[in-house]
Amino acid sequence: MYTAIGYAAQTPTSPLLPMSFERRSPRADDVAIEILYCGVCHSDIHQARNEWGIAVYPLMPGHEIVGRVTAVGANVSKHKVGDLVGVGCMVDSCRECQACAKDLEQYCLAGPTMTYATPDRVDGSNTMGGYSNSIVVSEHFVLRMPHGLDLASAAPLLCAGITTYSPLKHHGVGPGHKVGILGMGGLGHMGIKFAKALGAEVTLFTRSAAKAEEARRQGADHVIVSSDAEQMRAAAGRFDFLLDTIPVQHDLNPYLDTLTFDGVHILVGLIEPVEPPLHAANLVLKRRVLAGSLIGGIAETQEMLDFSAEHGITCDIEMLDIRSINEAFERVIAGDVKYRFVIDMTTLKA
Ligand code: NDP
Ligand code: ZN
User: Fold this and answer.
1) In which band, very low, low, confident or very high, does the pLDDT at 184 lie, cut at 50, 70 and 90?
2) Are 62 and 37 contacting, i.e. CB atoms less than 8 angstroms apart?
């Protein structure tokens, strides 16, 4: 065991405050990592405030982690001391169920071990995330950071990146497809970049007309202001896919209307229950599909990192001093960040 430091919430209503705690010494298959950067995902806020009802305290968020390997266990072959590596939302899974066998650890039938607020499979301790100076993770769940990616801007690829890349790939998005991205925050701006890089025609649906120019700079071909009923009606029946990153309850019906027959509306926000109710006719009469998607598997996350390096894709970030994390949470909720905060972990030493 060794002493680590980080920022954690002690209750759903308390701010994140510094705390020291014990990280395990590397087991035979573990990699110990000095964390350099960690992105701030909206899920971190949902979890710190127990908005999903599954939080465990103290809760140390952070699952968009980039760092350098400082030690490895005796059986580690994938990574060595000094390597630049990444860790996303998961740190373990059962590794033998049908999902794990298909490299879909995020759908592990026994439940994946998430990077924070989940019992470790071996010692039962509560996992602590990346708002910290270090982390220890089994080598299978540690990604190789490709050369050529700016490390700070690449950190959010570990969640915002894979969560948008995976459903676009799974549904076969490519040239000839019209794709709508709902909401341009951390996930949404990555969705625009990936859908564009995969060859689709991309439209941003946003609440704010002011984001139109920004969206085009990100690669969007068109912008629809979702609060303008006229613009929504004019888009009826146009899209093959919608990738919905809106983090709060919202009416799905006007969006479903913009899909063509066989169109697919993919949810990534955990906005249950859907409110106001879904009109079944919006699905039935056009054989449309309402789908969901959770992050991506480890092999696919590596594929996404390599794809990003090849296509020069990173996130638009604002560097954050960890001492301002509580203000940063408020700014994320207010939509006042372009488009991801990334904690510079040197500020933890200050
Ligand atoms: P952000 O807060 O960065 O972005 C969300 C965007 O949604 C905003 O920028 C805004 O875009 C739009 N939005 C926000 N509030 C509203 C509202 N009241 N009504 C309509 N639109 C709104 O969040 P993230 O991108 O970090 O996360 C998005 C969601 O995805 C979260 O719920 C998060 O928990 C979830 N998530 C899911 C994962 C998965 O594996 N399924 C993994 C990671 C995150 P605009 O201003 O353009 O309208
Ligand atoms: Zn996330």
Assistant:
1) very high
2) no
Q: For the chain, where do the domains classified as CATH 3.40.50.720 start and end?
A: 161-292
**184 in contact with ligand 1, CB cutoff 6 A:** yes
**Å from CA of 182 to ligand 1 middle:** 9
Res. 271: pLDDT tops 90: no
In contact, 144 and 68? CB cutoff 8 Å: no
- Centroid of ligand 1 to alpha carbon of 188 (angstroms): 7
Q: How far is the CA of 139 from the centre of ligand 1 (A)?
A: 30
Q: What is the CATH number of domain 161-292?
A: 3.40.50.720
Residue type, 116: Y
Buried b (16+ CB within 10 A) or exposed e, 100-110: beeebbbbbee
CATH 3.90.180.10 in the chain, residue ranges: 2-159+296-302+315-349
What pLDDT sits at residue 272? 81
Superfamily assignment of 2-159+296-302+315-349 in CATH?
Medium-chain alcohol dehydrogenases, catalytic domain (3.90.180.10)
Q: Which of 37, 93, 46 is nearest to 249 (CA)?
A: 46
Q: What is the mean pLDDT of residues 34-59?
A: 97
